[in-house]
Amino acid sequence: MFGDKPLCLLCNATVALVKECNLKRNYTTKHSEKFYSIIGEERKVKINSLRGSLCKQQDIFTKQDTESAKSTCASFAISEIIGRKMKPKKPVANISLSARTVTRRIEDLSADVKLSLKELTRQFEFFAIALDESTDLKDTAQVAVFIRGINAHFDITEEFASLVPLRDTTTGLNIFNAVKSVIDDFGLKLDDLCGMATDGAPAMTGTVNGAVSLIEKEMRNVGFERNLVRTHYIMHLEVLYAKSLRMQEVMRVVVKTVNFVRSRGLNHRQFQ
Fold first, then answer.
1. Domain boundaries in the chain?
2. Distance (Å, whole) CA 240 – CA 212
3. Contact 91, 82 (CB under 8 A)
4. pLDDT (tens digit per residue) in 180-235
5. What CATH class has 122-242?
6. Beta-carbon neighbour count of residue 204 at 10 Å?
7. C-alpha distances in angstroms, 165 versus 41, 152, 199, 211?
8. Is 69 exposed, middle or buried (0-12, 13-18, 19+ CB in 10 A)?
9. What is the pLDDT of residues 223-267, one digit of tens each?
10. What angle do CA 242, 244, 248 make, to 5 degrees?
11. Under a CB-based contact definition with an 8 Å cutoff, are residues 179 and 131 in contact?
12. Which parts of the sequence belong to the DUF4371 domain (predicted)?
């Protein structure tokens, strides 16, 4: 039933008057051809299944309405208490959710995470760095620095270390200075640096003024002779491979198929 009117379990249509002829007409004209072969016990199972599905749908809206009503009642109750006391309740008043407070809490959490990471990096026997230079929505160049290290117990830690903005140019020297500042900030030693992963850009991998070459030069200046293990991001390699492949014939079929499926609601429903 939908209110005081009978509700069809197959098409969710209602009948104006509760008469057998009206119910029979709705079933005969709309559903008899499709369901005439379902008889006996199978018919009872089908009816129970449709009834259960309808009840679940109705329960969803009933639950939402109930929760909304409870929230409204709670709001009125709190307002009534505050009005009678002529002052805000202390538990509610002590909860601060202003933008400034939330920002300050996030900064505190960020500082705590950074402090925890520093405790881990102090135990590194060797470490490697991954760099990724990009530009944000405001055209500010920035270098993302990731650290991966191993301690004496062979425990490996891999974490995002810092995002350093480049206010001016994005040369190898600028990137080198950004990386050096992160290494110094975390109390790491260049002697323990064994590898660097980059996106293969000239500013990163240049033989003279690339960031990696400048770091190797700095290591030699402090008396440590080592050639870093240079690696290229797998993701960037996949992008380069994709550019060199000729997959137009494959993609043309895929795009045409997707467009056909999504062009009409009926196509999409039948595909599902």
1. 1-49, 122-242
2. 21
3. no
4. 999 988 888 888 899 998 887 888 888 888 888 898 888 888 777 777 888 877 66
5. alpha beta
6. 23
7. 72, 33, 17, 15
8. exposed
9. 777 778 888 776 666 666 777 777 778 888 888 999 999 888 888
10. 75
11. yes
12. 108-210
Quote the tokens at residue 238.
Answer: 């996949």
CA distance 196 to 172: 14
**Token pair 């994005």: residue:** 170
Task: Please spell the DSSP secondary structure of the chain, one letter per residue.
Answer: -BTTB-B-TTT--B-SS--HHHHHHHHHHHTHHHHTT--HHHHHHHHHHHHHHHHHHHHHHHHHHHHHHHHHHHHHHHHHHHHHHTS--HHHHT----HHHHHHHHHHHHHHHHHHHHHHHTTEEEEEEEEEEEE-TT--EEEEEEEEEEETT--EEEEEEEEEEESS---HHHHHHHHHHHHHHTT--GGGEEEEEE---HHHH-TTTSHHHHHHHHHHHTT-----EEEE-HHHHHHHHHHHS--HHHHHHHHHHHHHHHHSHHHHHHH-
C-beta separation of 136 from 142 below 8 A: yes
The encoded tokens of residue 80 equal 């009534």
Residue type, 59: D
Task: Return the structure tokens found at 122.
Answer: 């102090």
Q: Determine the Cα angle at 124 with ends 119 and 130, to 5°.
A: 100
